[in-house]
C-alpha cells in the first residue's frame, strides 16, 4: 500500500480493524502496511481507541510483548442497544404479526441487514469474554441471526437441520420434545460440522418453552461439546417458570402478553437489559 497522509491512514486503519474483529494485528503489520513508524501507528491507534470507546463502537485491546498487538472487540452500550430493541418491540407489537399458537411473524425483521448487524453486535456484547469456538443455530430463521453474531465475533457457524441431507454426509440425529407443542421432533447435525469438546454459543430467533434449544443442547452432548451460552432474540413470557425447559439464557426482547382474539401483544426489552 502506498504511503498515506495521517487523516487517510486513520480512516483506512479504522476500516481495517472493523472488518477484522477479534483478530490480533501486530504493530509491525500496521507499520509495514502503511509504511510508517511504529510510534506513529501507536498514536493513531490511541486516537481510534478513544473514539471507539466514546461512541460505543467497542474496545481496542492492546497486548504487550513481542507477540502483541491490538485486537478490536465489537461492543454496544446498553443505552444504545435498548433504544434499538424498543423500536423492534414496537414493530413486533403490530396486530397482524400474531400467528396461531402465540408465535410472531418476524421474517421481515430478520431480513434487514443493518438491523441484523446491530442485533449481532448486541449478542457479541452479551457474550463478550466467554470462551467460544463456534456459533450454533437451527434452520431456518435463526440462521441470519447466527451469521450476524458470528461476523462480530469472528467465529464459524454450525447449522442444525430438521432433516438429514445427503450433501451433509453422515450425521448424528436425535429426537426431542417440543416444549410448546409437546410433540416429538427430530434434528440432526453432520459429524464433520463440529469438533468434539467444542465450546458452543447457541443463537435462536424465538423461544417459547425452550424445547428446541434444549434439543440442541442434547445434540451437543453427542459431540461431547460444551454450551458456552444461549441467546434468543425474543422469548415468550406467557409460560410459567415450571414450564420453561431452560433457565440460563439471554434474551433481547420478551413477549409478555398476547391476546389471540384481539391480536394485541405486549413486548418489552429482554433480560439482557435487567
**Any low-confidence stretches, pLDDT <50, length ≥5?**
none
Query: What is the makeup of the main sheet?
Result: 6 strands, mixed
The rounded distance between the terminal residues' Cα atoms is 47 Å
Q: What is the 3D form?
A: globular
Q: Radius of gyration, rounded?
A: 21 Å
Please report which band the strand proportion falls in: under 5%, 5-15%, 15-25%, 25-35%, 35-45% or over 45%.
25-35%
Global structural class: alpha/beta
Order of helices and strands: HHHEEHEEHEHEEEEHEEE
Q: What's the helix count?
A: 7
Helix content: 25-40%
Mean pLDDT: 91
Task: Characterise the protein shown here.
This protein has helices at 6-18, 27-34, 38-54, 78-92, 113-126, 142-153, 211-222; strands at 58-63, 69-74, 98-99, 103-104, 134-138, 157-160, 171-177, 184-190, 199-207, 226-236, 250-259, 264-269. It has 274 residues and is an alpha/beta fold. It is built from 7 helices and 12 strands. Helix 6 (142-153) links the parallel strand 5 (134-138) and strand 6. The strands form 4 sheets. The protein has a 6-stranded mixed sheet, sandwiched between helices. A two-stranded antiparallel sheet has the order 1-2. It has a two-stranded antiparallel ribbon with strand order 3-4. Helix 5 packs across helix 6 (142-153).
Amino acid at each position: 500500500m502506498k504511503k498515506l497522509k495521517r487523516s487517510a491512514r486513520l480512516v483506512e486503519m479504522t476500516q481495517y480493524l472493523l472488518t477484522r474483529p477479534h483478530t490480533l494485528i501486530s504493530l509491525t503489520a500496521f507499520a509495514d502496511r502503511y509504511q510508517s513508524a511504529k510510534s506513529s501507528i501507536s498514536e493513531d491507534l490511541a486516537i481510534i481507541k478513544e473514539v471507539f470507546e466514546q461512541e460505543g463502537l467497542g474496545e481496542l485491546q492492546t497486548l504487550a510483548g513481542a507477540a502483541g498487538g491490538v485486537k478490536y472487540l465489537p461492543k454496544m452500550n446498553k443505552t444504545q442497544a435498548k433504544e434499538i430493541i424498543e423500536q423492534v418491540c414496537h414493530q413486533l407489537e403490530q396486530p397482524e404479526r400474531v400467528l396461531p399458537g402465540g408465535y410472531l411473524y418476524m421474517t421481515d425483521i430478520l431480513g434487514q441487514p443493518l438491523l441484523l448487524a446491530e442485533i449481532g453486535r448486541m449478542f457479541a456484547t452479551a457474550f463478550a469474554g466467554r470462551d467460544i469456538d463456534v456459533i450454533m443455530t437451527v434452520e431456518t430463521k435463526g440462521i441470519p441471526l447466527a451469521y450476524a453474531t458470528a461476523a462480530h465475533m469472528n467465529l464459524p457457524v454450525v447449522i442444525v437441520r430438521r432433516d438429514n441431507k445427503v450433501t451433509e454426509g453422515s450425521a448424528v440425529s436425535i429426537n426431542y420434545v417440543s416444549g410448546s407443542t409437546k410433540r416429538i421432533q427430530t434434528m440432526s447435525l453432520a459429524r464433520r460440522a463440529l469438533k468434539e469438546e467444542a465450546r458452543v454459543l447457541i443463537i435462536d430467533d424465538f423461544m417459547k418453552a425452550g424445547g428446541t434449544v434444549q434439543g440442541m443442547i442434547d445434540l451437543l452432548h453427542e459431540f461431547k461439546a460444551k454450551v458456552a451460552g444461549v441467546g434468543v432474540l425474543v422469548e415468550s413470557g406467557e409460560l410459567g417458570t415450571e414450564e420453561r425447559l431452560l433457565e440460563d439464557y439471554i434474551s433481547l426482547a420478551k413477549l409478555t402478553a398476547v391476546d389471540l382474539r384481539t391480536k394485541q401483544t405486549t413486548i418489552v426489552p429482554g433480560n439482557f437489559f435487567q
